[in-house]
């Protein structure tokens, strides 16, 4: 049930033929985008991950040139949960290949261990500054994942820590509370974030999420999530690709940390 999102932090939408048609067209366009020279910097982890931020050329309604409209099913689900759909940014196209994870450029051994052992678990929008601090620079409204290729649990699925959104909301809210709301985007929450992640690893269920073209995944913006290592099996896909929409909230960090309806 989509309404479970406010309890678990995520929900999977059922198969929709129109969503599959959108995904098929997006994958055709996305494969061209992956190999465009301007997107060379998005290849990382020694070629096992195309990060692909803003790599899809969709319009503000989610439509790609020559392709179908973003289907009504996901839009209705988002609107029921979070209100009117805002203008959409060019979608991220995250593509993972056999052998993932290798070290990212500049990643030390501790970082690679975290990527391997903790699925590089992270909170979207909380970015690392040059001083090493963590600040909410991109307060997303929600996260919508649209699988573009078939996916197996052995092929680097999305990983979610169920219920982590409320643990993070409480911890970060307490860190922001002593400060003026208009300064919350400037607050370094690195220490509380790292400590809260430890609590989440100890108390929340780690859930791999496998979805296919035609399905969609909706995540609460405060849900801790990551990508599992590529284990493979008897039959391996050439890659696993998902398009992600993560629009920015107009209300900034105060809206980002606020309680949603549901």
From TrEMBL:
SUPFAM superfamilies: Clavaminate synthase-like (SSF51197). This is Phytanoyl-CoA dioxygenase (PhyH). It comes from Shimia marina. The lineage of its organism: Bacteria, Pseudomonadati, Pseudomonadota, Alphaproteobacteria, Rhodobacterales.
């Amino acid at each position: 049930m989509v309404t479970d999102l406010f309890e678990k932090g995520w929900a999977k939408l059922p198969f929709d033929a129109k969503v599959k048609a959108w995904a098929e067209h997006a994958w055709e366009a996305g494969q061209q985008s992956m190999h465009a020279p301007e997107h060379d910097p998005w290849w990382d982890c020694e070629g096992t991950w195309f990060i692909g931020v803003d790599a899809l050329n969709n319009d503000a309604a989610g439509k790609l040139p020559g392709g179908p409209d973003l289907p009504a099913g996901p839009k209705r689900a988002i609107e029921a949960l979070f209100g009117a759909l805002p203008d959409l940014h060019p979608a991220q196209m995250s593509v993972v290949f056999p052998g993932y994870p290798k070290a990212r450029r500049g990643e030390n051994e501790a970082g690679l261990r975290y990527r391997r052992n903790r699925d590089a678990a992270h909170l979207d929008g909380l970015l690392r500054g040059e001083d090493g601090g963590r600040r909410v620079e991109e307060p997303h409204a929600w996260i919508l994942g649209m699988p573009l290729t078939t996916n197996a649990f052995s092929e680097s699925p999305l990983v979610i820590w169920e219920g982590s959104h409320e643990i993070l909301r409480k911890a970060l809210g307490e860190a922001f509370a002593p400060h003026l709301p208009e300064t919350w985007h400037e607050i370094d929450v690195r220490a509380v974030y790292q400590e809260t992640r430890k609590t989440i690893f100890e108390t929340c269920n780690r859930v791999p999420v496998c979805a296919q073209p035609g399905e969609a995944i909706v995540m609460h913006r405060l849900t801790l999530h990551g990508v599992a290592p590529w284990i493979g099996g008897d039959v391996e896909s050439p890659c696993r690709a998902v398009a992600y929409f993560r629009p920015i909230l107009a209300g900034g960090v105060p809206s980002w940390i606020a309680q949603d309806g549901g």
